[in-house]
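Worked Example 4.2. Consider the chain below.
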Amino acid sequence: MYNFLLVLISTVLCALPSSAIEGLTRQSFSTKPFSTDGRWMTNADGVNLTYAGANWPGHGETMVPEGLQYLSVAEMVQKIQSTGMNAIRLTWAVQMIDDILDKRSDGQLGTAFVAALGETNGTKVLNAVLDKNKMFTKETTRLEVFDAIALECARQGIYVHLDNHVSKAGWCCKTDDGNAWFGDEFFNTKNWERALGFMADHGKTWPSFVSMGLRNELRPVSGSQDVPVNWDTWYGNMTVGAEAIHRANPDLLIFFSGLYYDTQLRPIFYDGGFRDIDFDPSKLAYKDKIVLEVHDYDLDETNCTNKRTKLTRDSFAALGPISPKVKTVYPLVMSEWGFSQSPDQYAAPFAACLGKFLPEQRVGWMIWVLTGSYYIREGEQGKDEPWGLLDSTGTKWRCAECITKGIMPMIQNTLGIETPVANA
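Applying the procedure from the previous section yields the following structure tokens:
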């Protein structure tokens, strides 16, 4: 791995003029560590950080970030950067770390694609990935692909947020997929804690790695469940997971998701939200690292006033003491939301409402999803993703109008920047 990284870093730096290399050290993420100040995420100079980014899935059966058979790592990151986005939410599976630490597999690409897609298709996709990404070989490991993405994000000024999406690699999220709740079929909490610490530590070498999510979309389990689905269970496990991250990498911001597919956060910041537990951040070692994250896929709510009211009640009230019952103020990021990428959808009530509401609140966000297809999803290889910003060929925007008239103005309004001209 280390030889690979040295070669990759040297290749990246040698390709840049000296002025550009010096510019890397001036990026805002060079002023780490980041921390929280009331409702804001801030860098070491006290400058506020707000995310405007996209989800890049890496938690599927291959455990390799999607889309690399169509674009190189550099080209993919450049697509993100060209819109004015400043962040990616890079998802991963605990299984990838279990394979390494339990010595089941080192996750080389040559075996990862064949294991997930079969000999014929796996070899075909592998060859396409290697053709687009000349620095990779079939011996390159999954984790080294994550390293390459992180280094390229640093080169292009993109923040990296790691999200533990699932335990067993595969599509998320259902109540019967074995990944739903602590102690579920595949959700071994000891392995999860171990993996969080491993990834937090591993990412120390990534210049633009500033935050990490504990778990994606916690939810009830279908059928019987030994571990109660409640806030007491949430507290007991999430604080342990946060401690694992903080021990391994004290610089990281730590994202806490809520319950019910990450739509409910209120007990975390409301007085009396927990029956028997005093969730007092001031008593925690990572007290200035806590960020809350929320998801919204309620496309059926067409009344924007109602949507704003519900979001404020269940999550956005964490941003400020609008009620005497708000006991603690936290930063908040909408780490997932999205819509089918078609011209009639970016101006539809759901996207139009969030397109105004999130920038007004100065809340960070990551749209689902960057890539336009999956190596494999729910048994279907090459499955198209209608919500993907990129099309099924993985090379151009699925809906250019959605990008230029919907997403890019939202980025500008969120970050207060001049909108660039996005690559086709």
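Confidence is low (pLDDT under 50) at residues 1-27. The first strand starts at residue 35 and ends at 37. Compare this with Example 4.1 before moving on.
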